[in-house]
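Summary for the steering committee. One of the milestones for this cycle was to obtain a three-dimensional model of the protein with pterin-6-yl-methyl-monophosphate bound, which we needed before selecting residues for the alanine scan. The sequence and ligand used are listed below.
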Amino acid sequence: MSTIVPIPLPYAVGRPVVMGVVNVTPDSFSDGGESFEPYAAIAHGREIVAQGADLVDVGGESTRPGAERPSVEEELRRVLPVIAALAADGTVVSVDTMRAVVARQALEAGASIVNDVSGGLADPDMVPLVAEVGCPYVAMHWRGHSTDMQSRAVYDDVVADVCRELAERRDVLLAGGIRPGSLVLDPGLGFAKGPAHNWSLIAHLEAVRALGHPVLLGASRKTFLGRIGVLDGAPPRPPADRDAATAATSVLAALAGVWGVRVHDVPSTVDALAVVASTAAHQ
Ligand code: PMM
C-alpha cells in the first residue's frame, strides 16, 4: 500500500496552467545547466513560483537529442532535495522522469504529478506505480530515447500519426489502471519531430484535444523556435533568445484550450496568458 496521498489534477480558471521548468541537469539544451546544484535549483524554483508558475516541473535527465542517460542514483541525487524543498513550501511539483523508481521516491518526497516523456514506454513499472498511487500523470508522445530519436521523425501525416499513437497509448494506460481524469496527453514537440512536424502539431492542437484528455504543450525554447528569423543554414538563435516566440506559442495553446504550457521563462508566458484572458473577458 502506498502512503502517498494523491491530489486531483490542478486547473487554472480561464487559462492554461503554467508549468515552470527546473532542470537539475548539467547539459539541458534550454538552460545550459544553470540550475544544476540543488541550492540553485531550489532558488530557481522559488523564483518562478513568485513569477506566477502554477506548478514546477523538476527533472534530472536531459532529453535533448543525443543525450546520454544518468544513472538512477544520479537522477535521484539531483531531483529529490529540490522536490522536497519546493513541496515543503506548498508548491505543486511534478517530477519529469521516465523511471518508476525515481517517480515513486519523488512522490514520497512531495511531488504530486508524474511527467513521463515516454508515456510509460521506457519503464514497464511506471504504469502500475501511477495506477497504484492515483496521481495525475502526463503521458507524452514518444518514439524512443534521445540518443537516436531524430531518426524516428518519419510520418505520413504527423497530426494523424501522433494522435493515433497517443490514443493507442491512452488505451494501454487506462487499461493499466490509470484514472481517466488524472491523465494528461502531450504531443511531444521536438521528440522525434522536425520543425515542420512541430508547427503542424501546434496548428492542430484541437486534434490532440479531441482525444478527450487535458493537453500539455512543451514548446519552450525548442530549436524550431530558434529558427524564426534565421536564414537557412545559419545556426539557430540561442535558447534564451526564444522566449518571445515561446510566449506566442503559449497564446496559441490558450486559444486552442489546452490544459497547460511547460515553459522556462515564466513572466513572458504569464503576461501572454493575461492578454488572452483580458481579451476573452471583453468578447
Ligand atoms: N520537453 C522536455 C522535457 N520534458 N515534458 C513534457 N511533458 N513535454 C515536453 O515537451 C518536454 C518535457 C525537453 O525540454 P527541456 O530540456 O527544456 O526540459
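Key point for the committee: The mean pLDDT is 94.
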